[in-house]
Amino acid sequence: MADQDAQSPAGVEPPALPVLRWDETPGGPVLVLLDQTRLPAQETELVCTDVPALVGAIRTLAVRGAPLLGIAGGYGVALAAARGEDVAEAAGLLERARPTAVNLGYGARRVAAAHTAAVGRGVGGAAAAAEALAEARALHREDAQASRRMAEHGEALLEELLPSGGHQLLTHCNTGALVSGGEGTAFAVALRVHRQGRLRRLWVDETRPLLQGARLTAFEAARNGLAYSLLTDNAAGSLFAAGEVDAVLIGADRIAADGSVANKVGSYPLAVLAKYHHVPFIVVAPTTTVDLGTPDGTSIIVEQRPGNEVTEVTSPHGVAAGGGGATVVAPLGAPAYNPAFDVTPAELITAIVTEEGVVSPVTGVGLAELCARSSQVTIS
Ligand SMILES: CSC[C@@H](O)[C@@H](O)C(=O)COP(=O)(O)O
After folding, report:
1. Is the peptide bond before 67 cis (omega within 30 degrees of 0)?
2. Do 209 and 338 form a contact (C-beta atoms < 8 A)?
3. ipTM higher than the 0.90 cut
4. 257 and 333 housed in the same domain
5. Closest CA to ligand 1's atom 9
6. Active centre residues (catalytic)
7. Distance (Å) of CA 121 to CA 114, 221, 380
8. Residue from 265, 173, 263 nearest 220 by CA
9. Do both 275 and 292 map to the same domain?
10. CA-to-CA distance for 250 and 349, rounded, in angstroms?
């Protein structure tokens, strides 16, 4: 288990990560992404000049995480509009790039709807494209605001549930600034607790097979000076048994109307462990991740990814050092089961924290009511 003690005091904040930006170049507009497949070894930019390039970046997880996928989808449609391409087709291509995170389709369809509305008002090509871009920027800003408010609500909930303070929080996958217009979802809550001097330790699951915890969350924890320790996913049970976890904080890719939550594979076993050990299991996600059109967890489409992500281990440090990427760790041709997500039923979830408030037995507020309160734009 790698161990990292707090390196910088709470209150010293690192510069914002250059996660995603729109750039006007002499050759036309482009979307510039921080290539997350290269982290933590390299902070490399990936320039997407068109929608197929962005679809490729989404599929390889160069850009990833539900809220950021929504933002990227929105800018992708704006890019298509600026290039004079068919925005409905672009939105469809983007939405189909990955099936589970509802935000991707939300962002793409919302910006496409803004463009269609502009055209419907008789607004011309470049001006309609400018309206599409303005909508993408609005979505980006709203996500940053949602992130701040989720952190406030999440931290208040933890104070209520764990009044003695000095929290040891466990998280899975990556839910920080790398997935958001702001500081993230679950990680933003941990960060706020840290800044208030009440985080004893953030336990970071490595998150096999693509290691979003080890590569990305540990990277974000270190640069923000959190006291954190990295663990293999299968070490979590012994940590609960030892009484070293006060609460679990995770994000979400899609929340069904019955409160079931799809998130990175490995979330569901954590929820079972948390229930057994009477530890709060808290989901932090913006209302854009709630999909009231999906009635329950069994209706959520779980992305199945290539088997080689399981049978091989890829080291970004190896790539950076010229080491050449993947090491095969299974017999050649070994079949593999590789769902990217799993679904946690509502009865295992203590609370869902959104920017509009908390859904829990404590508040008695339902998901539909929170979404109705939300200022998020509704699209058909
Ligand atoms: C706010 S992030 C919530 C989820 O998107 C996150 O936990 C996750 O599962 C990301 O999966 P990924 O496959 O890396 O896109």
Report:
1. no
2. yes
3. yes
4. yes
5. 264
6. 253
7. 11, 47, 18
8. 173
9. yes
10. 11
Residue with tokens 């890019």: 79
Closest to 149 in 3D by CA, of 10, 284, 291: 284
Q: Closest ligand 1 atom, CA of 69?
A: 15
351: containing domain: 150-373
Q: How far is the CA of 344 from the centre of ligand 1 (A)?
A: 14
pLDDT at residue 368 is higher than 50 = yes
Q: Which of 264, 282, 288 to mutate to test the pocket of ligand 1 (most atoms within 8 A of CB)?
A: 264
What values do phi and psi take at 290, rounded to 5?
A: -85, 130
User: Where is average pLDDT lowest: 51-55, 167-171, 220-224, 321-325?
Assistant: 321-325
Residues 6+ apart with CB under 8 A from 176: 183, 184, 187, 188, 191, 216, 217, 220
- Among the three residues 142, 164, 185, which one is the final residue of a domain in this structure? 142
Confidence of residue 129 (pLDDT cuts 50, 70, 90): very high
Pair 90, 156 in one domain: no
Based on the domain organization, do 162 and 130 belong to the same domain? no
Bridge partners for 22 per DSSP: 31
The number of folded domains in the chain is: 2
